């Protein structure tokens, strides 16, 4: 009877483990599905904002290449306005957060549930960037003082070289005469 009980319990355990594994896999798939659904919702909201920005970017004058708008689909989807500004969704995935990256950190320029308020903030940002560009193009180039000329090589005075050669020759003759006088008394 004990054998029947043991054989029944061993046969039941793998079945329970299989059921538990199956249930765990279903739960993991559901969690992954929720994460994917949230990410898809983020992308959909960013695409709605991107479409709302179409009229603004249609008005940008030709030749102004400051802006490179597009949605990046990484871990955190973002709608890029230019190289340093983007819109991402807040923690609750319903709030738009328009941020600007600076040398001192990230600055939140606008945050809202309302697409129109974010479009307004992006419009203001784009206008400021175009004005900055116009100002930098209209300013004359900075006048920098010309570098000083390199120092001229020192002029060799021909008379100085002659005198130096004369003195060296006289010393050599004097040394030779002294050597010869001491050697041959």
Question: Overview of this structure, please?
Answer:
- 9% of the residues are buried.
- This protein has a five-stranded antiparallel sheet with strand order 1-2-3-4-5.
- The radius of gyration is 42 Å and the shape is elongated.
- The chain is built from four helices and five strands; from the N terminus they run ααβββββαα.
- The longest helix has 51 residues, at 2-52.
- The chain has 185 residues and is of the alpha+beta class.
- It has one domain (1-137).
- The chain crosses the membrane at residues 159-182.
- Keywords: Membrane, Transmembrane, Transmembrane helix.
Structural class: alpha+beta
Quaternary arrangement of the chains shown? single chain
Number of helices: 4
Order of helices and strands: HHEEEEEHH
- CA gyration radius, whole angstroms: 42 Å
Give the end-to-end Cα distance, rounded to a whole number of Å: 140 Å
Strand order of the largest sheet: 1-2-3-4-5
Strand content: 5-15%
Give a count of the beta strands, DSSP E runs of length 2 or more: 5
What is the arithmetic mean of pLDDT?
A: 81
**Regions with little confidence, pLDDT below 50 for 5+ residues:** none
Number of domains: 1
Helix content: 55-70%
The major sheet is characterized as: 5 strands, antiparallel
Shape: elongated
Keywords: Membrane, Transmembrane, Transmembrane helix
Transmembrane segments: 159-182
């Amino acid at each position: 009877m004990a054998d029947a009980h043991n054989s029944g319990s061993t046969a039941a355990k793998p079945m329970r483990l299989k059921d538990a594994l199956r249930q765990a896999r279903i739960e993991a798939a559901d969690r992954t599905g929720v994460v994917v659904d949230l990410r898809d919702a983020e992308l959909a909201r960013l695409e709605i904002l991107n479409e709302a920005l179409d009229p603004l970017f249609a008005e940008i004058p030709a030749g102004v290449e400051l802006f490179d708008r597009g949605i990046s689909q990484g871990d955190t989807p973002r709608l890029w306005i230019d190289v340093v500004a983007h819109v991402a969704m807040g923690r609750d995935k319903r709030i738009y957060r328009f941020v600007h990256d600076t040398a001192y950190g990230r600055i939140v320029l606008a945050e809202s549930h309302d697409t129109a308020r974010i479009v307004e903030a992006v419009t203001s940002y784009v206008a400021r960037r175009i004005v900055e560009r116009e100002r930098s193009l209209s300013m004359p180039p900075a006048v920098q003082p010309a570098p000083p000329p390199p120092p001229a090589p020192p002029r060799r005075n021909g008379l100085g070289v002659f005198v130096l050669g004369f003195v060296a020759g006289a010393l050599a003759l004097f040394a030779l005469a002294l050597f010869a006088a001491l050697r041959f008394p």
